[in-house]
Every structure is written in C-alpha cells, then in structure tokens.
Amino acid sequence: MGSQALSSSRFFPFSWVALNSSQPSSCLNPSVLPLKSKNPPFPLHANAITSPFSLLRFQRLNPRATLDEKDQSPLLVQQQEEEEEEEEQEEVQTQINKDVEESVKVLKNAAKTRKVAAEEILSALSVIEKAKINPSGFLQTLGGSKSPGRTWMLIFTAEKQLKGGRYFPLTAVQRFDAAGKRIENGVYLGPIGCLTFEGRFTWKNRILAFIFERVRVKIGPLNPFEISLGQKEDREPSTKDPFFIWFYIDEEIAVARGRSGGTAFWCRCRRVTT
C-alpha cells in the first residue's frame, strides 16, 4: 500500500495528503512528502500544500496570459495604423481648409472689384463645392435672427458643371428672413423701377426650397402694385419647387447652386428700398 500511495502521490500529492490524514503529524513535514522530482508535473510553492485549488487556478490562468502576450503585437499594429490614418485625414482636412480659405479670398476680391477673371472664380467655386463644409450655421448667417432678415446682392452666375460664367449685369438682391421663413427676390433698375417676388421658404440641412406667393411691380415714381400668384399657404415648399443648395455662407459672401444646376455667389449688402 505504501508503494501504491507513493506512486499516486507523484501525480496527485494533495489527494495523497487528504487520504492519509490519519497518519502521524510528521507525515505532513514537507521533507518526507514525495514531492521531490526532477520533472514535476507542475510547479509548486509553499501555499500549494494548504490550498490545492490555487494551483488549479494558476494552471487555468497561465495559458490565458500566454495568449494575451501573443495577441499584443497585432493590437499594437492596428492601433498604429489607426493613428497613422487619423494623421493623414487631419493633413488632408488641413489642406482642404487652406484651399477653401484661398478660394473665399478670391470671391471676396471679385465682389469688391469685379475684376477677377471668370476662370479664377469658377475654380474657387469648384473648391468650395467639393469641400462639403458643415452647414449647421448657414441659415442663421444667411437670414439673421430677426425679421426682416438680411439682404444679399448677386455677383456672379455660373453655368451647369461650372463650364462658364459671368458677372451678373443688373442689381439683383435677395432677402432672407430666417425668423419668418420669408424670401424676397428683386431686380432694381434705379429710377426706372423694380420688380420683386416674395414668398416663403423651408430649410433642411443645406437646402432652401421656396415658393413665391406675390409679385410687386414699381414703375418710376408711381406707387407699386401687387399681383397674387395664387399659391396655397398650407403647402410647404419642397425640392419639387425652386431651391438652393448652399455650399458656403459667412458674414460677407454666400455660395449656392440652383435647381437648374447653375452656381452663383452673393455678397452681403444693405437693404434696397426703391
């Protein structure tokens, strides 16, 4: 029986101790336990004798630690790739911002002097359209915070796909009232008179759709007369109606494309009353 206990103890030392607990206390002395082996099946320490379950936990956790060490390198590589991608995106966005800033300067100079070449304006419009600037503050800048809103003078109109364009030859002014959701589009001919259209608009994301409800005509010194266009007030404007897609708006200039595909830009101006 002793040899059997000795043989089994090499593989199950803690079972051996439990089964032979009736022997004298001297058998619990580590020096007489059959634990010495050139190739023990697993490492032991002092607490293993009193806590066999700790050894089992150690055996279970050790392979996990090994796996974590193996997985560490791919994780670091992935993190490095993500950081490099973020840096590239930041560089691209920085360059886009610079290009937009230069393009805006071109348009503002064109609005002031009307001497910038059409090719330069078309190139600037193309850069601004492709930049896809966040439109969250566009409406507030375009139409102000209270009625009657803000007025903008049309400076330049471009053909579809920016194939050509020219400075607008007449005084055309649009008024946008963000508080009242009203729009007014007028052509002013000085002492000859003016023609204005007024209506309402809706705004969604960067799209301003509108419906004209009435037209006003003024000829010379005569009082203006008004003509109703018969639009129902219960219908909201939609993309089935005329609309603008706005690409850029600040306190001085605004850029948008119309439903027909042509692009234009305006500059901020005072309200025209005659």
UniProtKB/TrEMBL annotation:
Biased composition (Acidic residues): 80-91
Disordered: annotated span: 69-96
Highest taxon listed in the record's lineage: Eukaryota
Protein name: Uncharacterized protein
Organism per entry: Manihot esculenta
